[in-house]
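quick one before i forget lol
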Amino acid sequence: MTAAQRALRAHLVTFTEHEYRYELHGGTRASSQALGVDEHAVVKTLVMADESRTPLIILMHGDREVSTRQLARQAGRSAVVPCDPAVAQRHTGYLVGGTSPFGTRKTMAVFVERSILDLEAIYINGGRRGLLVRIDPRDLVRVLGAVPVDAAQ
């Protein structure tokens, strides 16, 4: 059981597990195809850092990219850049490709693309490569305190 699964259970989040064959650099396209789900409903967990190198998480649709400029503005930061993979792993405790916003090693601010909250269900990493969990997107706000933003491009 992963730290993410333990966190989900501790917060009484209803979830189903969906395993797939992990492909290095396959991203959400590979996982959505393997599971037969819309890539728009597969949510990626991206670790970023602000101008003072404070880490934060942005949750984004699999088929969209993050506008770091929009994210910084809406998060009240001067700048936001992607974290180096090794730094992201130290903050989260997860390998890149298996990063979940649940059960992270360090508590970080979490932002979520606003339109994700309109979906009926989402698929998000369950804490290891090759594992997605299906949850109600409202649990992102309830459990993580995720702040809605408009940062998709």
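fyi The longest strand covers residues 42-50.
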